[in-house]
Structure formats: structure tokens, C-alpha cells
Amino acid sequence: MAGSRLEKLGTIFSRVNGLIKSGAMKIEDRPIWYDVYKAFPPESEPHYAKPAKSYKIPNIFYSEDIFRAEFHKKARNQLPPINLREPRKKQNATDIAIEMNIADQSISVEKVIEILNKNKVLPIYNTSLNKISPINNNDSTCKINANEINTPTTEVSSPSN
């Protein structure tokens, strides 16, 4: 059959009607019921609706997620930006705090921040002091020539094992 290959879309009458209109089926080859259905269509169009499956969505919050949210809320002004170019082996303060929480579930966020400050893992990095001033378009120092910009190129090599 030409047209939709999905049997649940459209009624059999609409599919046969489409085949006749497109020339894929001759009018002489139409099914016996076609003329009766065309002369006496049903009051409401037959509709196939597959019942939707109900899925129970599991809770996917882990204790580490809740701890991370609390840690970021309380140590917001002390967290430095994460350099994504550094290798993953060099951990940031958040990773260390979560590992401490996994090792001892009873430790509080304040205690973790205190330990990290004591060990100088969590430097005092005040984000409110590092605000960037808006650019003044009339300032002559803001004019940059694209040819003067030196963009360093780095080669990416595959790790040798």
C-alpha cells in the first residue's frame, strides 16, 4: 500500500480512498464495503487510541546532590572558577568536599568548609570584587585590530598507554 505504513493512522476508508485518488488502486478494484461506507458513513469517525502507559518516575536525588547544593550555597564567595582545561586529576574544592561527605555522612557543610579553609584548599575568593566594568564605546582603548590578536594554537595529542 502506498502512503502511511503505520496501520493505526487513519481509518481503512481514508487509506483506501487515498489509494484510489493517487491511482495506486483502480476504482474497479475497490473493496465491496467501500460503496456502502461512502453512502452511509458512521456518525463519528472510528478512532484508534492506544492507551498511554503510565510510568512511575523514580526519585533520582542522591545525598551527594543535596550536599553539593548546600555546599555551593554556603561557600559561594569562596569557590574559585573551575578551569576546564586542567586535567581531571587535579580536583577542585567541591570534589574534595563531596568525597569528605561520602566518607563521613554525619559531617556538616560548615565543618567541611572549616576543614577546607584550615588546609587552604578553599581560598577566600570573593566573587563580588571581580566585577567587570561595562565597556565604553567612545573609549579609544577598546578599539582592537583583529590582525593584532595573537591566538595561541595548541596541539592535541592522544594519550600514550
Automatic annotation (TrEMBL):
Keywords: Mitochondrion, Ribonucleoprotein, Ribosomal protein. Residues 2-94 form the Small ribosomal subunit protein mS23 conserved domain. One of its GO terms (biological process) is translation. Its main location: mitochondrion. GO terms for cellular component: mitochondrion; ribosome. CDD domains: At1g26750 (cd23701). GO terms for molecular function: structural constituent of ribosome. InterPro entries: mS23_dom, mS23_dom_met, Ribosomal_mS23_met. Pfam families: MRP-S23 (PF10484). It is found in: Mitochondrion. Belongs to the mitochondrion-specific ribosomal protein mS23 family. This is Small ribosomal subunit protein mS23. The lineage of its organism: Eukaryota, Metazoa, Ecdysozoa, Arthropoda, Hexapoda.
